Inverse folding.
C-alpha cells in the first residue's frame, strides 16, 4: 500500500511536469511569431542627393528613372529596394 | 516508428501544399502572360525536366562538358518559355524562368521526401524513417523558403543574392554598358585614377549571366592579360549566429555556380598571374532568395569603401582592374 502511494505521487508529478512543459511550449510558440516584412523603394536625386522612401510598386527596379526631384528638378532614380521589418502596433 | 511516420506524413502534407501552391502561382502567371499552350501540361513537362551529370571518372574536359550541358538546358528552357509566351518582354520571361526553377525545387523536395517515406515503410527500415524524421524541420524550412521566394520572383523584387549585382550597378551608376556575353554586361568607369571594367548580369530580369566567360573575353581579347587585379563581389552563406550583411574580404573566385564559371575565372587569373580578391556579404539561404533585407542593401556602401581601399593599397594610378558583381540581378538594372 505504501509503495503504491509513492508510485501514485510519482505519476502525479510526472503528469504535472508534462502539462507544464506543454503549456510552456504553447506560450513560447505564441511569443515567437513569424516576422513580417514590407518592401520599400528608395529614390535618390543624383544631383543634390535628396532621398525619398515609398512603398514598392510592381515594375520598380534599381536605377529606374522616376519623378523630378522636388529640390532641384533633376530626374530622380531608384537607388535601393529593400525589405524592412514591420513593427507591430501596440 | 508509427509516431515518426505520422509526423513525417503531416510535414509531407505541408510540403505538398506548398508545391501545389507554387504550381498554381506559376500557372497563374503563365495565363496572365497569354500562354499559347495548355499551362498545366507545359509546366508538368518543365518540372520534371532533368540533366544528366557528365562522367566524372574521366576528368578530361569535365568543366567544358558540364558547361555545354548547362547551356543546352538553359537554352531549352528559354526557348520553351519564349514559344509559349511570345508577347512577354525579355525581363518578364526571365522572371517566369526563375519562378519555374523555384516551383521545380519544391516539386523535387516533395518527391524525394515521399520516396524515402514510402521506401522506409515498405522495407520497415526504422533507421531511414528516423533520419527522415530528424531532418524534417530543416526540409520544411527549406520548402517554406522556396515558397516565399516565389513572391519576390513574381513581383521582380531584388533578392539577397543580388547584392553583388547591386554593388556593380552602383559602381556603373547608369554609364553605357555593352552585352559582352549572353545576359552579361560590362561597363567601364574611372575610380581613384584607375580604369575599372565592371561586369554584371543583365538586369532587371532574374538572371545570373556568365561572368566567367565575360571575364575571359575581356582579359584575353580586349586587355591581352594586362590587368592588375580582379575583385569579385558575391553573397555568401553565413553560419547561424553570424550577422546578416557583414562584409568580409578574402581571396579566390567568389561565385557559387556549378563549376564552369568559377573554373574559367580561376584559370584566367592563374594564366595571366592576376591577383584574385573577393568580398562577400553574409546572409542565410532564406535571405539569399527572398526580398533583399535592408541590412544587406546597406552593406553596398561598405563594399564600395573596401573596393576603394583595395584600389588605393594594392593598385597604382592608371592600372586596369576588373570588378565582377556576381548574383541574380532580379530587379537591378545597370
Amino acid at each position: 500500500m505504501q509503495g503504491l502511494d509513492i508510485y501514485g505521487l510519482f505519476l502525479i508529478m510526472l503528469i504535472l511536469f508534462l502539462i507544464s512543459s506543454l503549456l510552456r511550449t504553447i506560450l513560447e510558440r505564441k511569443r515567437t511569431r513569424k516576422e513580417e516584412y514590407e518592401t520599400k523603394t528608395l529614390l535618390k536625386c543624383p544631383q543634390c542627393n535628396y532621398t525619398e522612401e515609398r512603398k514598392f510598386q510592381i515594375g520598380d527596379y534599381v536605377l529606374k528613372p522616376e519623378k523630378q526631384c522636388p529640390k532641384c528638378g533633376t530626374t530622380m532614380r531608384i537607388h535601393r529596394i529593400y525589405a524592412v521589418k514591420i513593427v507591430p502596433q501596440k | 516508428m508509427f509516431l515518426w511516420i505520422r509526423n513525417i506524413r503531416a510535414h509531407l502534407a505541408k510540403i505538398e501544399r506548398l508545391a501545389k501552391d507554387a504550381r498554381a502561382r506559376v500557372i497563374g502567371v503563365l495565363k496572365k502572360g497569354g500562354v499559347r499552350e495548355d499551362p498545366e501540361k507545359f509546366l508538368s513537362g518543365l518540372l520534371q525536366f532533368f540533366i544528366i551529370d557528365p562522367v566524372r571518372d574521366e576528368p578530361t574536359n569535365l568543366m567544358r562538358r558540364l558547361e555545354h550541358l548547362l547551356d543546352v538546358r538553359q537554352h531549352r528552357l528559354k526557348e520553351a518559355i519564349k514559344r509559349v509566351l511570345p508577347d512577354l518582354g525579355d525581363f518578364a520571361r526571365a522572371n517566369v524562368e526563375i519562378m519555374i526553377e523555384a516551383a521545380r525545387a519544391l516539386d523535387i523536395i516533395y518527391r524525394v521526401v515521399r520516396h524515402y517515406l514510402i521506401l522506409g515503410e515498405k522495407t520497415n527500415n526504422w533507421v531511414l524513417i528516423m533520419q527522415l524524421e530528424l531532418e524534417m524541420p530543416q526540409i520544411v524550412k527549406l520548402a517554406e523558403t522556396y515558397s516565399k521566394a516565389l513572391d519576390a520572383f513574381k513581383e521582380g523584387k531584388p533578392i539577397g543574392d543580388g547584392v553583388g549585382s547591386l554593388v556593380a550597378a552602383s559602381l556603373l551608376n547608369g554609364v553605357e554598358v555593352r552585352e559582352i556575353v549572353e545576359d552579361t554586361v560590362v561597363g567601364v568607369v574611372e575610380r581613384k585614377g584607375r580604369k575599372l571594367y565592371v561586369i554584371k548580369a543583365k538586369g532587371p530580369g532574374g538572371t545570373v549571366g556568365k561572368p566567367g566567360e565575360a571575364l575571359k573575353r575581356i582579359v584575353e581579347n580586349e586587355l591581352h592579360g594586362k590587368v592588375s587585379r580582379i575583385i569579385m563581389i558575391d553573397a555568401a552563406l553565413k553560419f547561424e549566429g553570424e550577422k546578416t550583411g557583414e562584409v568580409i574580404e578574402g581571396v579566390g573566385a567568389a561565385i557559387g555556380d556549378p563549376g564552369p564559371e568559377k573554373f574559367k575565372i580561376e584559370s584566367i587569373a592563374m594564366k595571366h598571374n592576376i591577383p584574385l580578391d573577393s568580398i562577400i556579404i553574409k546572409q542565410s539561404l532564406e535571405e539569399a532568395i527572398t526580398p533583399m533585407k535592408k541590412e544587406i542593401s546597406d552593406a553596398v556602401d561598405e563594399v564600395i569603401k573596401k573596393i576603394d581601399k583595395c584600389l588605393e593599397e594594392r593598385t597604382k594610378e592608371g592600372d586596369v582592374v576588373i570588378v565582377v558583381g556576381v548574383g541574380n540581378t532580379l530587379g537591378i538594372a545597370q
User: Anything to note?
Assistant: Chain B has a mean pLDDT of 93. The first strand of chain B starts at residue 177 and ends at 181. Strands of chain B lie at 177-181, 184-191, 194-201, 229-237, 247-251, 276-283, 320-325. The first helix of chain B runs from residue 2 to 32.
